[in-house]
């Protein structure tokens, strides 16, 4: 992908490196479909974001309810997932990457 102008950070983001290290064979983000990418990135970001907000809010006196943290996870994950999916689909079209199965670097597949 580097020969087509895609940076290594975008081609192999840290979350994907963790998934590959765990043995989960998932194509790099520019090769995933919109819904899959939105679900994967939003589904992992939402709970982490909500937990961070919950920890920071509970340092105050009034604290945060679990229900509010759940809503933050759902909304934050959905927004982040949609933005990341749109960005990576745009990146794939911009660099004309095609499909992962047709990509000419089989040695780099996880």
Description:
This protein is mainly α. The chain has one domain. The chain has helices spanning 8-11, 14-21, 34-57, 66-94. Helix 3 packs antiparallel against helix 4 (66-94). The protein is elongated. Residues 106-110 have low confidence and may be disordered.
Kindly list the characteristics that best describe this protein.
110 residues, mainly alpha, disordered C terminus
Number of strands: 0
Derived structural class: mainly alpha
Average pLDDT across residues? Answer: 83
**Strand content bin:** under 5%
Span between termini = 14 Å
Number of domains: 1
Total helical segments: 4
Unreliable spans: 106-110
What topology emerges from the helices and strands here?
Layout: H1 8-11, H2 14-21, H3 34-57, H4 66-94
In short:
This protein is mostly helical. Helix content is 59%, strand content 0%.
């Amino acid at each position: 992908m580097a020969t087509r102008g895609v940076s290594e950070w975008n081609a192999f983001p840290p979350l994907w490196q963790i998934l590959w290290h765990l043995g989960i064979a998932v194509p790099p983000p520019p090769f995933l479909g919109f819904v899959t990418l939105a679900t994967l990135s939003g589904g992992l970001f939402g709970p982490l974001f909500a937990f961070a907000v919950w920890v920071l809010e509970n340092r105050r006196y009034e604290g945060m309810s679990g229900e509010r943290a759940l809503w933050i996870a759902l909304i934050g994950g959905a927004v982040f997932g949609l933005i990341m999916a749109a960005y990576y689909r745009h990146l794939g079209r911009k660099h004309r990457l095609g499909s992962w199965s047709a990509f000419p670097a089989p040695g780099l597949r996880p």
